Amino acid sequence: MKTAVVAVIVRAGKVLVVQRAAGIPAAGYWTPPSGKLNAKETEPQALVREMQEELALAVRPLRCVWQCPAEGAAYRLHWWLAAPMSSTLDPAPAEIAAVRWVRPAQFARLQPTFTAGRHFFETILPGLPEWRGHRAPLGSTLEQ
Ligand SMILES: Nc1nc2c([nH]c(=O)n2[C@H]2C[C@H](O)[C@@H](COP(=O)(O)OP(=O)(O)OP(=O)(O)O)O2)c(=O)[nH]1
């Protein structure tokens, strides 16, 4: 089965999500950014390439934290933590309609979202040591 990578990019206790553009599959859906692997490409290579193409964002892939089937099951989604290496975003309009940094409670209010995305924010993300470590020292000031 083919693989797509999903990038979990955290900054200041928030996760980067994108709204898929009109004219692509699942238009309008909010999700962490993703992309399919090209032939012979590794998952980290695909992550770096897709974040560059879709957002002009340099990232450093850290580790795969979750896997799940895509809806319709044509793809397997591999969710990777990735560190942002640049501070600006330049979304490609053909693929991305909007970009936001969200806390899990804010993601829960976005519509529409995929079942996998909701599960990730509700269940997987809160259990990751990197996420807890990221948030703990920041306290409540960045939570507003
Ligand atoms: N990003 C994302 N995609 C999901 C989720 N659940 C789910 O079924 N999908 C589907 C939507 C897409 O068809 C597929 C992800 O592949 P993709 O992001 O590479 O799709 P794409 O059409 O933008 O392809 P590409 O050209 O950018 O590679 O999985 C989810 O939670 N997040």
TrEMBL record:
The keyword DNA repair applies. It catalyses: 8-oxo-dGTP + H2O = 8-oxo-dGMP + diphosphate + H(+); 8-oxo-GTP + H2O = 8-oxo-GMP + diphosphate + H(+). Residues 1-125 form the Nudix hydrolase domain. Gene3D superfamilies: Nucleoside Triphosphate Pyrophosphohydrolase. It is an enzyme of class 3 (hydrolase). PROSITE patterns: NUDIX. It comes from the Bacteria. Its cofactor is Mg(2+). GO terms for molecular function: 8-oxo-7,8-dihydrodeoxyguanosine triphosphate pyrophosphatase activity; 8-oxo-7,8-dihydroguanosine triphosphate pyrophosphatase activity; 8-oxo-dGDP phosphatase activity; 8-oxo-GDP phosphatase activity; metal ion binding. One of its GO terms (biological process) is DNA replication. Its EC number is 3.6.1.55. Keywords: DNA damage, DNA repair, DNA replication, Hydrolase, Magnesium, Metal-binding, Mutator protein. Belongs to the Nudix hydrolase family. PANTHER family: 8-OXO-DGTP DIPHOSPHATASE, NUDIX HYDROLASE FAMILY PROTEIN. This is 8-oxo-dGTP diphosphatase. It comes from Gallaecimonas pentaromativorans.
